[in-house]
Specification:
Chain lengths: 176, 193
């Protein structure tokens, strides 16, 4: 499989720089997919267990309120736990970005919880809370400003370029 | 010693030549002993340190033809006589290494060509996780490129210079303005044209 080379400009590296809107949006999309996927799997497992244990089928339509509560708790756990653990969710890890304190140090569990609680507010009102990622000087959204956090690139672009060069081998590299 | 032909006492302390003049032998021996004693007294009374203090060594050295001296030195022979092992034993290698600016040396290395053209590259390639990591690298690079694109356009719309914006938290990115970062798509402005 031939994959295009990372741009030579990436040689500079971006580690520690404020992450931009597209990377963050992609990470969020990946997280939504991952959390929903896990939630669905969990729901399926619960249904199966209930069916095996009681002989009755578990229907989401008949248990909308409990299912919604579980979903909210699950989403809260998904984000808060991962941010508190190492500042990144599955999607953020995939996109090479990380949440840190505004000063660049690792965020605290309290900040992770506050960020998770305020996060829905950024989505509300047609996502106006996210506008800060584009217009704010430090690319901080509403939930970042409230929790005192920032999102940075944690991906080592220079190492990625070296990996790419290593894969090409001497023949390709000479003609590059 | 041609100048000693007549005044033999001035020729040094060791051996005194006998004057060819037909002077009395006894008188000559007396004169010789007197000369010896006088010469010793004179030499004893000389303060060599005081004389050396008055000598302009720099001036003296400047008159020395160092090249001519070096030409006469057989360096090979000197090197042969040097016991390198013994010298190395006396060198504190750890202290020497501590004084080396490794970062500066590494900066001078062309790591890219090193990785691309040597066995080191294949070692790195084997040690990485392969296609999945490669795809992830490209997706991230695309993301960063698009981030920059949108950031440049936003800055244009808001009429603010990228130099005035911080690159990252101070503890992580202490210096360097945003403008120094080259656009990922290789373009010179945000339009991508």
């Amino acid at each position: 499989m031939i994959v295009a080379a990372p741009s030579p400009a990436l040689y500079e590296g971006r580690q520690g720089h404020y992450a931009g809107a597209v990377s963050r949006l992609a990470a969020f999309a990946a997280d939504v997919g991952a959390s929903w996927g896990l939630y669905t799997l969990g729901l399926g497992a619960v249904s199966l267990t209930v069916a095996l244990a009681t002989g009755r089928t578990f229907s989401v339509n008949r248990n909308q309120i409990p299912t919604l509560i579980v979903l909210v708790v699950w989403e809260f756990m998904y984000f808060a736990y991962q941010w508190a653990l190492n500042g990144k969710t599955i999607g953020m890890a995939a996109m090479g970005i990380q949440v840190v304190k505004a000063d660049g140090t690792p965020l605290t569990a309290r900040q992770a919880v506050v960020r998770t609680l305020v996060f829905p507010l950024s989505i509300a009102a047609v996502g106006l809370g996210f506008l800060g990622i584009l217009v704010q000087r430090e690319r901080r959204a509403l939930h970042d400003l409230v929790a005192g956090t920032a999102v940075i690139y944690s991906w080592d672009a220079r190492a990625a370029r070296l990996r790419w060069l290593a894969r090409q081998g001497p023949e390709t590299a000479i003609h590059r | 010693m041609g100048h000693c032909r007549h005044a033999s006492v001035a020729c040094g302390l060791g051996q005194f030549e006998v004057s060819p003049n037909p002077i009395n032998d006894r008188f000559e021996r007396v004169a010789q002993s007197i000369a010896e004693r006088v010469a010793r007294l004179v030499i004893d009374s000389i303060d060599l340190n005081a004389i050396m203090e008055r000598v302009d060594v720099d001036h003296l050295v400047s008159r020395v033809n160092a090249d001519a001296i070096v030409d006469r030195v057989d360096v090979e022979k000197i090197v042969e006589r040097v016991d390198v092992e013994k010298i190395l034993e006396r060198v504190d290698v750890n202290a020497l290494v501590e004084r080396v600016d490794v970062r500066r040396i590494v900066d001078q290395l062309d790591i890219e060509s090193l990785v691309a053209q040597t066995e080191l590259g294949s070692i790195i390639a084997r040690s990485t996780s392969g296609v999945a990591a490669e795809v992830l690298d490209v997706i991230r690079a695309q993301g960063v490129g698009l981030d920059d694109f949108f950031a440049r356009w936003t800055n244009r719309i808001l009429r603010r210079g990228p130099d005035s914006l911080p690159l990252g938290p101070r503890t992580l990115v202490p210096t360097a303005p945003l403008a120094s970062a080259t656009p990922l798509d290789g373009s010179t402005d945000g339009s991508g044209q």
